[in-house]
Amino acid sequence: MKSVVIQQPGELALSERELPQPAAGEVRVKVQYASICGSDVHIWHGHNPFAKYPRVIGHEFFGLIDAVGDGVETSRVGERVAVDPVVSCGHCYPCSVGRPNVCKTLQVIGVHRDGGFSDYALAPAENAYRLPASIPDKLASLVEPFTIAANITAFLQPQSGDTALVYGAGPMGLTAIQVLKGVYGVKQVLVVDRLPERLDLALANGADNVFNNSETPLAAQLEGIQPTLIIDAACHPSILAEAAALASPAARIGLLGFSGEPCSITQQSLTSKELSLFTSRLNSKRFPQVIEWMDKGLIQPEKLVTHYFPLNEIERAMTLFEKDPRTCCKVILQMG
Ligand code: NAI
Ligand code: MN
Ligand code: ZN
């Protein structure tokens, strides 16, 4: 089978690999579509602290179960599945309180173990979620990025009366906008980015108002509006302090970033308004929820997609995705 392997940081290859056999409790998925995420690019360039090399990348993928290991119902062969990349132990403290996404021995498929940019991939059987026919093959890999929005909004508990502000209109910001509007019915969703093309995408994904902060700071454009719910999907370390300054008293702020740079903020700016801060990593068993949202038409994954490429054009696809955020949002690979 063909697999996209990062041999070591900086070295991407489309390699011939042996077909893997599912271990007990696992399924093998014949991958049909997989989407590129920023973290795939980070692993390629050696900027992901969790990655081990060599690694088959890809954690957003869809396919058909074509083999099962011991203890897995053979009737599952042929199922159309989206794969949750979060593999957890099930018994440590975070697992015991329903947060397997921060399991003490967390393994992410495509990061800590081989992933889905490949003709075939292995996953624990319980990570492979059967999809209804209403979710088309070519959009099914987008369940995973929407689980990020599902996870952070579960902490933030959006209300229709919220004034929400989303930093960043990349894939993460756009999934957040769609979930805030389509699932929670938030009446006012404001979005800030530096790229006009991304702000156009934000509008197409349901934003009510967009702001470009490349020249004028956001504070000068909000005209006194105080957001009650803020999601940082741009993830620059300077954003938290700005968000706290702009927020309404009693607002909630959700952070998605992984920067290792310090961010400077005073206790006063948080405590004087009694702001709530939430962080969110990956997803805690949110696949069923997102699948239901897609099935009911509450979210529109097609609005994120700008390109499809065959797997053998992986380097071109990853380079475009990385270098051209003005024309590129979600890029989907088609296998075999
Ligand atoms: P992206 O790079 O495509 O989008 C970020 C957007 O933010 C861009 O459009 C950029 O122009 C904009 N931006 C950057 N700095 C800004 C600023 N100061 N003000 C306003 N806009 C600004 O990335 P993507 O894929 O949407 O991911 C966003 C972030 O989310 C990344 O940092 C990534 O590491 C993080 N992430 C976190 C996850 C989690 O589970 N916590 C999962 C996936 C991504
Ligand atoms: Mn992703
Ligand atoms: Zn655990």
What's the quick description here?
The model has no long low-confidence stretch (mean pLDDT 98).
Describe the structure using short key phrases.
336 residues, alpha/beta, six-stranded parallel β-sheet, 18 strands, 26% strand, globular, binds 1,4-dihydronicotinamide adenine dinucleotide, binds manganese (II) ion, binds zinc ion, Zn-dependent oxidoreductase, ADH-like_C, oxidoreductase
Give the strand content: 25-35%
Helicity level? 10-25%
The set of bound ligands, ions and cofactors reads: 1,4-dihydronicotinamide adenine dinucleotide, manganese (II) ion, zinc ion
Largest sheet: 7 strands, mixed
Domain Alcohol dehydrogenase-like C-terminal: 171-295
Pfam families: ADH_N, ADH_zinc_N
Keywords: Metal-binding, Oxidoreductase, Zinc
Domain Alcohol dehydrogenase-like N-terminal: 24-132
What does this structure look like?
This protein has ten helices and 18 strands. It has 336 residues and is an alpha/beta fold. Helix 5 links the parallel strand 12 and strand 13. Helix 3 packs across helix 4. The longest helix is centred in the middle third of the chain and has 14 residues. The structure holds 1,4-dihydronicotinamide adenine dinucleotide, manganese (II) ion and zinc ion. 1,4-dihydronicotinamide adenine dinucleotide binds next to helix 4 and strand 12. The site of manganese (II) ion has 6 residues, from helix 3.
